[in-house]
Write a structure and sequence with these properties.
The structure holds two protein chains of two kinds. Chain A is mostly helical. Helix content of chain A is 75%, strand content 0%. Chain A contains ten helices and no strands. The radius of gyration of chain A is 19 Å and the shape is globular. By secondary structure, chain B is mainly alpha-helical. In chain B, helix 2 runs antiparallel to helix 3 and helix 3 packs antiparallel against helix 5. The relative contact order of chain B is 0.14. Classes of the chains: A mainly alpha, B mainly alpha. At the A-B interface, helix 2, helix 3, helix 4 and helix 8 of A face helix 2, helix 3 and helix 7 of B.
């Protein structure tokens, strides 16, 4: 049933431009971030690592949480329009399976976005003329941890969209979340706050840096948040007032 | 027109529209004030100018987003339940577009004005040194309102023309993203002039030079930029064009 629902979600998105944004948006920091790196090459001396900060700084702080917020809001909003939710809830499917399928679709979009960020980073570095070896292991790790952090944000944003029928309000909360994430990182609490996890996992020049000893606790915190919010979201969706 | 505006206000009842604006104002002020929590001597000495230097970046990040959310909140009610179909039998589409636009512009305009007043108050409360540069701050207010209205009209048009609200949000977020980067690309000044989201940076009144990690504010000096009247006319003209195009598209939208 889960895979059938995944297929249904895919069909719902087929004629929607929403997923295209996940492909287009990472291109903007790749082009402009690289241009900024080249303009300030005398200050930014850490080559690949300096370029990484240029690519990910604003992406992680503000734009990825908002992008996730919009996508999750859209996933739920299609159910709220034209009585789709009533139809869906009369089908012989469990509410938690529907929620899980939406969580999976949004997580896949985050993964695609992170993969694109990594690929564009490699291409931009080559175009910028960086001669030192490409830090493949670090980039894979940052993108992987960023995806995990993104999944945690997906779970909370989906939960918010279950509670709030409006399209814009959960998106507004995602911006507030993104800014709060920055504040938590500044106070060295980024490893605990859900909206800091993307910046922290991707080592996006945040005031608080993720070290090797922190990988396991980071993964544990992400899994904890995903489990909690998925359980809450599944419950809320199953008991939603039509 | 007044009746239409009254109708719009009634639709907002119970939708926490003004609460949302208040939350955004608080978020904006929290961000600005965070930097002046425990002000250093340099913060107090250069406070008035430093704020003018820092605010355009914060504006580029927050204000376009506030415009997107406000426009979406005002327009999404009509898309649900095909309300536009009924409304357009009662009044012309152009008038409906204008009534909603008026309310949205008023909302974001008041928000920006409240933010401005609070920022000025912050300067006085924290005790910034020197005389309050009233002329520069009035210019700053005008130069913040101009791009905000320009962006709002675009977001309003997108929110009304597209049933799918994510179109407006994604356009806004992509533009905002490019606008933020355009501020940092000092060598490409045309980019921030070309992008409407970069206009906050293009209308920047203050430049800060001489700051380094080592010397900090020791050798810092500020330069006040002159804004070309031609560029201001360009912004006003593009605002009018966006309005006319948005209204035209809405009038021809298939319901």
């Amino acid at each position: 049933m889960f895979f059938k629902l995944l297929k249904a979600e895919k069909m719902k998105l087929r004629h929607s431009p929403v997923w295209i944004a996940f492909l287009i948006l990472p291109v903007i920091p790749a082009i402009l971030g690289t241009a900024n790196y080249l303009c300030n090459i005398e200050i930014l001396k850490k080559e690949w690592y300096s370029l990484w900060t240029q690519h990910t700084l604003f992406t992680c702080y503000f734009f990825l949480p908002i992008l996730i917020g919009i996508f999750c809001s859209y996933l739920m909003h299609i159910e709220y329009t034209e009585g789709n939710l009533n139809k869906l809830l009369t089908m012989p499917v469990l509410g938690r399976t529907v929620f899980l399928s939406k969580l999976t679709v949004a997580s896949v979009m985050v993964l695609i976005s992170e993969t694109e960020i990594g690929l564009l980073f490699a291409v931009s570095g080559k175009i910028a003329g960086i001669v030192s070896p490409f830090p493949l292991k670090s980039v894979l790790l940052w993108c992987g941890l960023g995806t995990l952090g993104g999944m945690a944000v997906v779970s909370v944003q989906l939960l918010l969209s279950v509670f709030i029928k409006s399209f814009a309000a959960p998106v507004a909360l995602s911006l507030i979340g993104g800014i709060s994430g920055l504040a938590f990182l500044a106070k060295d609490l980024g490893d605990m706050w859900i909206y800091s996890l993307v910046d922290y996992g991707m080592n996006a020049n945040s005031p608080q840096q993720l070290t090797e000893n922190g990988y396991i606790p980071f993964i544990a915190v992400c899994v904890f948040y995903i489990a909690i919010f998925t359980a809450a979201g599944s419950f809320a969706f199953s008991h939603k007032d039509r | 027109m007044i009746t239409l505006i009254k109708c719009e206000l009634k639709k907002l009842k119970g939708r926490y529209f003004f609460v949302m604006s208040a939350v955004f104002i608080m978020l904006y002020l929290a961000w600005v004030m965070h930097g002046y929590d425990k002000p250093s001597e340099a913060d107090l000495k250069f406070g008035w100018k430093l704020l003018l230097y820092q605010l355009p970046l914060i504006n580029t990040i927050l204000l376009p987003f506030i415009c997107s959310v406000t426009a979406s909140r005002l327009c999404e009610t009509e898309h649900s339940g095909n309300m536009l179909k009924q409304l357009c039998t009662l009044t012309s589409r152009g008038r409906l577009f204008d009534a909603k636009l008026f309310l949205g512009i008023l909302s974001v305009g008041i928000s920006v004005a409240v933010m401005w007043v609070c920022i000025v108050m912050l300067g006085f409360i924290k005790g910034f040194w020197g005389k309050f540069p009233v002329d520069l701050y009035i210019k700053y207010l005008i130069f913040t309102l101009l791009p905000t209205f320009e962006i709002y009209i675009l977001q309003h048009s997108l929110a009304l023309c597209f049933k799918n609200q994510s179109v407006g949000f994604f356009t806004g977020i992509a533009g905002e993203f490019a606008g933020v980067f355009s501020i940092f690309l000092q060598n490409v000044p045309w980019l921030r002039k070309l992008l409407i989201w970069g206009h906050y940076g293009a209308l920047d009144l203050m430049g800060m030079y001489g700051w380094t990690k080592e010397t900090k504010f020791e050798n810092v000096y500020f330069v006040t930029y002159d804004i070309s009247p031609i560029f201001i006319i360009f912004i006003i003209a593009s605002t009018v064009l966006i309005y006319l195009f948005g209204r035209y598209m809405f009038e021809r939208k298939e319901l």
